[in-house]
Design goal:
It is a single chain. This protein is mainly alpha-helical. It folds into two domains: 16-240 and 327-384, no CATH class; 244-310, no CATH class. Helix content is 72%, strand content 0%. The protein has 20 helices and no strands. The protein has helices spanning 21-42, 45-50, 61-71, 75-98, 103-123, 130-140, 148-151, 154-166, 170-176, 180-192, 196-236, 246-265, 268-274, 280-308, 312-318, 322-326, 328-343, 356-380, 385-395, 402-408. Helix 1 runs antiparallel to helix 4 and helix 1 (21-42) runs parallel beside helix 17. The longest helix is centred in the middle third of the chain and has 41 residues, at 196-236. The chain starts with 20 loop residues before the first helix and ends in a 10-residue tail after the last helix.
């Protein structure tokens, strides 16, 4: 069947040669932060700390854990959200250039991501971020065509919507907070010593009654603004043409990184005590600045990476993480596969038994393997298996046959095959 010469081109994934190094590098680095933050949850340390129980820290574990909380907790997932928001508008612009409608494609893509998230939550690990990203994407889609000068004004509206979504779940969470020690014991029973099927049943209950409500009440309003910032940064050219915006990037880095570090390292009680003697309007201004500066550290990270990539040494060093960024979905899911096997009862059963320092060192070693394996994989195949599946679900499949599947995965097609 021939296609008419004037037919608009079909939507296609971005070719590897056309990918932007800075986006892949940021995505790869964000995965490091996600892993180090999530180790506290995989190992049970987070729940033990909430229950005021003694946590084995190991040598330097207290300092390392504090640094992870201050520098990475909430920031790594937010950076991925910023990049995901940029990806939404990149896909929309691609559809516009191809003369194709974007809404149906976007809904397929988001729906496929939600399926990944649902499977990930129930089968592996329910502290998943894919479902959050899918829901936030649905909320952001109607605002993608706004001009850069107007897109930021959608944040208050979207935050109001997220708060309305969260309201029905607040009473449930208050009830759970009354017995954190009991909740930790349930984790020890079902994750630390149970079979995979027992973990699955408990994970399903936890998904509905605990982590589902938590992600709607806390993650949704925390991550949503970064999706909009990603759209804004792409439309302004900060991500696509950073060399044209060096002055702005330097201002963002010094302001957001400097204030963000100060706000994150300074405990809230110490801040309130320090400003107690200042007149009320200035005291409120300082508190609001500290409140917004804490998540602004993520913007400082993004600006700093973009600036470092302009230097030869920085480009060579940070470029090591680009292959991992190209396989972010696959490697994110692999983190859950490996970590649940290490800590859950159907694997090594180390839940609640590993010190913080040992967990973080193991996480760094595993991340190094992820960087190496991503580079090795992409030497032979053009994309990760999860990325391939996501794109097949998003773009649709008009062709059949194993030879075609191998070709799309990056393997050479045999002579004579069509």
């Amino acid at each position: 069947m021939t296609v008419a010469p004037d037919a608009p081109p079909t939507l296609q994934p971005v070719a590897p040669a056309a990918r932007l190094l800075q986006l892949d590098v940021m995505r790869g680095l964000a995965l490091l932060g996600v892993l180090l933050v999530n180790l506290d949850v995989f190992s049970g340390v987070l729940w033990a700390r909430d229950a005021k129980l003694a946590v084995p820290l190991g040598w330097g574990g207290g300092i390392a854990e504090a640094l992870v909380r201050v520098l990475l907790e909430g920031k790594a997932a937010a950076l991925l959200g910023l990049l995901f928001g940029a990806g939404l508008v990149i896909q929309m612009e691609s559809a516009d250039r191809a003369g194709r409608g974007y809404t149906a494609f976007a809904l397929r893509r988001v729906g496929a991501l939600a399926l990944f998230g649902l499977a990930h939550s129930l089968l592996l690990w329910n502290v998943d971020i894919l479902l959050d990203y899918a829901l936030i994407s649905l909320l952001v889609l109607p605002f993608l065509r706004l001009r850069p000068s107007r897109i930021l004004w959608s944040i208050p509206l979207l935050l109001a919507v997220s708060l309305l979504i969260a309201l029905p779940f607040l009473p449930l969470l208050r009830g759970l907070e009354q017995d954190p020690a009991g909740f930790y014991r349930l984790g020890l029973q079902h994750y630390g010593a149970g079979t995979w099927l027992e973990a699955l049943r408990y994970r399903a209950w936890e998904f509905v009654h605990v982590l589902g409500p938590q992600r709607l009440t806390s993650r949704l309003p925390a991550l949503l603004p970064f999706f909009i910032l990603g759209v804004y940064f792409w439309k302004k050219g900060f991500l696509s043409e950073p060399d044209q915006h060096l002055r702005t990037l330097r201002i963002l880095f010094f302001a957001c990184f400097g204030l963000g570090l100060l706000a994150n390292f300074l405990p809230q009680p110490a801040l309130h005590a320090a400003v107690a003697g200042i007149p009320q309007p200035f005291r409120m201004l300082i508190k609001l600045t500290a409140f917004f500066a804490r998540p602004a550290l993520t913007v400082g990270y993004a600006a700093g990476i973009l600036l470092l990539l302009r230097r030869g040494a920085g480009r060579r060093l940070l470029g090591l993480f680009a292959p991992l960024g190209r396989m972010a979905l696959t490697q994110y899911l692999l983190q859950s596969v490996v970590c649940t096997w290490v800590f859950n009862g159907y694997g090594l059963g180390l839940y609640g038994k590993v010190s913080v320092s040992a967990g973080l060192l193991g996480g760094l070693a595993f991340f190094a393997l992820q960087v190496w394996s991503s580079r090795l994989w992409l030497r032979h195949v053009s994309m990760g298996p999860a990325e391939w599946a996501w794109r097949r679900l998003s773009y649709g499949a008009r062709r059949r046959g194993s030879a075609i599947l191998l070709t799309e995965l990056g393997y050479p097609k045999a002579v004579g095959e069509d």
